[in-house]
Amino acid sequence: MKLRGHHLLCVLGFKGMGYSQSFIDNMAEVVAQLRDSHDPSIEIVDGPDDICLAAPGRVGDSCGHSGRLDSEARVRDHDLRVLKWLGVASGTLVEWSRVKKMVAERMKPSDLALTCPSCPWRPLGVCAEGIEAVRNDI
Ligand code: SF4
After folding, report:
1. Domain limits at 113?
2. Fewer Cβ atoms within 10 Å of its own Cβ: the N or the C terminal residue of the chain?
3. Ligand 1 binding pocket includes 74 (Cβ within 6 Å)
4. In this predicted structure, what is the pLDDT of residue 95?
5. What angle do CA 32, 41, 1 make, to 5 degrees?
6. Rounded distance between C-alpha atoms, residue 8 and residue 78, angstroms
7. How many angstroms does the Cα of residue 36 sit away from the middle of ligand 1?
8. How confident is the model at residue 60, as a pLDDT?
9. How far apart are alpha carbons 37 and 127 in whole angstroms?
10. Count of the separate structural domains present in the chain
11. 21 CA to middle of ligand 1, Å?
């Protein structure tokens, strides 16, 4: 499975919300694979990943937030911020259990204000709940 940096966090608190029904269905499938497979390997990628595949407006190597390359550049900055926080680089192949351990050891729910400052989903609180759940699990 390919995931970009910030999506390592998004999948933890996913509660069925997203940009379109096809995006939601695809993300639910990714989250189900992470939950139900035996410790799947994640390839951390720079750019559109298995979740972005169904993003509305996606054009080539640009994510679907607006279909514009400058939007993709902003999302890559977001990825880098999250990866730096977790201490892992893009291009790395890592087991899902290791990702959860990194999040549990290095993040508190309140850190989302720094890793994801402008995300419209953050105020809903589901991502903070996802981080908290991982911290309680490890
Ligand atoms: S705040 Fe936004 S970018 Fe950050 S984990 Fe949640 S949904 Fe993903």
Report:
1. 2-137
2. C
3. no
4. 98
5. 60
6. 12
7. 22
8. 74
9. 22
10. 1
11. 18
User: How far away, in angstroms, is 6 Cα from ligand 1 center?
Assistant: 7
128 neighbors 6 (Cβ within 8 angstroms): no
Using the atom order of ligand 1, give the atom closest to the CA of residue 115: 4
* pLDDT for res 56: 82
56 CB-near residues (< 8 Å, 6+ apart): 19, 20, 22, 23, 64
Neighbours of 112 (CB within 10 A): 21
Residues shown for the chain: 138
Query: In this predicted structure, what is the pLDDT of residue 67?
Result: 56
Give the list of residues 6+ apart from residue 24 with CB closer than 8 angstroms, or none. Answer: 16, 17, 18
Contacts 24+ apart (CB under 8 A), 100-106: 100/12, 100/134, 100/137, 100/138, 101/138, 103/8, 103/9, 103/12, 103/131, 103/134, 103/135, 104/134, 104/135, 104/137, 104/138, 105/138
pTM of the model: 0.93
Which residues of the chain fall below pLDDT 50? none
pLDDT score recorded for residue 63: 72
Q: Whose CA is nearest to atom 1 of ligand 1?
A: 122
First to last CA, the chain: 22
